[in-house]
């Protein structure tokens, strides 16, 4: 699994989410509440999210 990382759009605050991609999809967690765990998404779900996000910011 890859390391957790934040978006470059997050700036210097910890008010964001972190993601880590892996072979079967991705996991997402809140940077302020890491101890609460994370949500897992399949590769198809994660790709759909990324594509939708990219297209909505153009």
Please give a structural write-up:
The protein has one helix at residues 43-56, and strands at residues 5-6, 17-22, 25-30, 39-42. The protein is of the alpha+beta class. The longest helix is centred in the last third of the chain and has 14 residues, at 43-56. The model has no long low-confidence stretch (mean pLDDT 88). This is DUF397 domain-containing protein.
Query: Could you give a short account of the major beta sheet?
Result: 4 strands, antiparallel
CA radius of gyration: 12 Å
The topology string of helices and strands comes to: EEEEH
Number of helices: 1
Helical fraction:
10-25%
> Span from first to last CA?
30 Å
Mean pLDDT: 88
Spatial arrangement of strands, main beta sheet = 1-2-3-4
Uncertain regions spanning at least 5 consecutive residues = none
Got a strand count?
Answer: 4
Strand fraction band? 25-35%
Provide the structure class: alpha+beta
The backbone outline, from C-alpha atoms, is globular
Helices, strands, pairings?
Layout: E1 5-6, E2 17-22, E3 25-30, E4 39-42, H1 43-56
Antiparallel strand pairs: 1-2, 2-3, 3-4
Domain DUF397: 3-52
Biased composition (Basic and acidic residues): 17-29
Region (Disordered): 1-29
Briefly say what this structure is.
The chain is of the alpha+beta class and 58 residues long. It has 1 helix and 4 strands; from the N terminus they run ββββα.
Keywords, separated by commas or semicolons:
DUF397 domain-containing protein; 24% helix; four-stranded antiparallel β-sheet; alpha+beta; DUF397; 58 residues
């Amino acid at each position: 699994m890859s390391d957790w990382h934040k978006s470059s759009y997050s700036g210097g605050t910890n008010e964001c989410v972190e993601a880590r991609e892996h072979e079967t999809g991705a996991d997402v967690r809140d940077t302020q509440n890491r101890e609460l765990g994370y949500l897992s998404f399949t590769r198809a779900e994660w790709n759909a999210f990324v594509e939708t996000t990219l297209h909505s910011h153009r």
